[in-house]
Amino acid sequence: MGLISKFMALIPLLLLLVSNATADATSGVFDITKFGAKPNADVTQALADAWKEACASATPSKVLVPKGTYQLGASRLKGPCKSPIELLVEGTLQASPSDTEGDGLLVMEYVDHLTLAGTGVFDGQGKAGWEKNDCHLKKECKKLPMNLKFNFITNSIVKDITSLDSKNFHINVLAGKNLTFDHLKITAPHNSPNTDGIHMGDSEDVYILNTAIATGDDCISVGYTNRKITISDVTCGPGHGISIGSLGKYKTEKEVVGVTVKKCKLIGTTNGVRIKSWPDSAVSYPASDMHFEDIEMENVANPIIIDQEYCPWNQCNRKVPSAIKISKVSFKNIRGTSSTPVAVKLVCSKSNPCEGVEIADIDLTYSGKEGPAVSECANVKPTISGKQNPPICAKPAPPETTPSTD
After folding, report:
1. CA dihedral 216, 220, 222, 223 (to 10 degrees)
2. Residue 11: what pLDDT?
3. Which residues does the entry assign to the active site, renumbered to this chain (predicted)?
4. Is the bond preceding 396 in cis, omega lying within 30 degrees of 0?
5. Among residues of the chain, what percentage have pLDDT more than 90?
């Protein structure tokens, strides 16, 4: 067969390939394998190229990461996009164990109407990073990469994915608005430092729903400058619990208003539901309208805490009271078992006592050698109703006995 004949024989195949690519683009699906991605190889550029074309589409589009394991370097997928866009991850995107620089494995920013979905896994391969992490020892420290960062994402949903062994926070939300996290799985060992499950700041209308988090730090941490945060049907453990704060560390912080935590279960965590602020805080602002309801505790140390003397590793001046004003807080229908005798501890600021604290229907038992569960309080006069086990605010909190290492 001559060269011309061979070329003519290839024409149907070439037309089929072009037709398939056109069909994918026409259907709005941008498969990273069409952009050169291959399993067990680095797909950083292929993902960036697929995102760029999808983001420029005038009609709704989908970037597909099919089943398989792929290596991913630090990636930043930016908007704004011309229409709603989905990143569908069915495979595993795996960080390099030695990559301890950069913001995160995947940073998504300035996107409206984003869907991140799929049964896939973001694997931070965090062990090498945890060995270098000293942020649990120092107030100022070098930050390691997170698995997922969402900056300025609006009207969007993240669902069904798994975040595994992040070197730092698993998921960080900055300046999000109307953002939902649903049916996520977040996993790291109990001794992995600073691996908060989901952390948020400067955000509004964030919903965390139907999610299982097992990690080495706070399962969920609601930082400063947040409004209207809802956390529901979350299972947490191991980890440090569900926290608002820590508050008051930086001068740029602003108020926290409207946090609801309900229908959650905490198992074997070092704290339960907690509000924490630094003494000698860098700024003064209110933290209010915070409600914890229908919470189940199983072998949880410190199930209920307000801690305005939060000072991990003695990185602050305990003698100067916190300037954060906590008010309009409720703890209702919280039940289960405590692994320490002090099941309820409310330690508020000497200079800004807590106001409007309501406690109703608490049933927490402790079966250790130190006797039945007790509560301790300072600088707060809560309104109490319903069941009280232990008796609420039966005695003052001893000085400087609040948890200070996480």
Report:
1. 20
2. 46
3. 240
4. no
5. 82
User: How big is the chain, counted in residues?
Assistant: 406
Superfamily of 41-130+143-396 according to CATH: Single-stranded right-handed beta-helix, Pectin lyase-like (2.160.20.10)
Q: How far apart are CA 374 and CA 385, in angstroms?
A: 17
| Per-residue pLDDT tens over the stretch 31-72 | 999 999 999 999 999 999 999 999 999 999 999 999 999 999
* Opening angle at CA 386, ends 382 and 388, nearest 5: 70
pLDDT at 402: 47
Side chain identity at residue 349, one-letter code: S
DSSP-based three-state secondary structure for 190: coil
Whole-model pTM: value is: 0.91
113 is catalytic: no
Lookup: tokens for 363: 């049933």
Q: Which one is catalytic: 183, 199, 240, 291? A: 240
Please state, in angstroms and rounded to a whole number, the distance separating the CA atoms of residues 201 and 173.
6
CB 366 within 8 A of CB 337: yes
Unique residue bearing structure tokens 């950083």 = 44
Pairing mode, if any, of strands 121-123 and 92-94?
parallel
Are 86 and 56 in contact by the 8 Å Cβ rule? The answer is no
Please list the alpha-helical segments (H only) found in 125-241: 127-132
For the chain, give the longest Cα–Cα distance. Answer: 97
Residue 117 vs residue 135, higher pLDDT: 117
Q: State the pLDDT at residue 134.
A: 72
Residue among 331, 332, 335, 263 nearest 297 (CA): 335
User: Residue 10 has what pLDDT?
Assistant: 47
| Cβ neighbours of residue 182 closer than 8 Å, sequence gap 6 or more | 157, 158, 159, 160, 207, 209, 210, 211
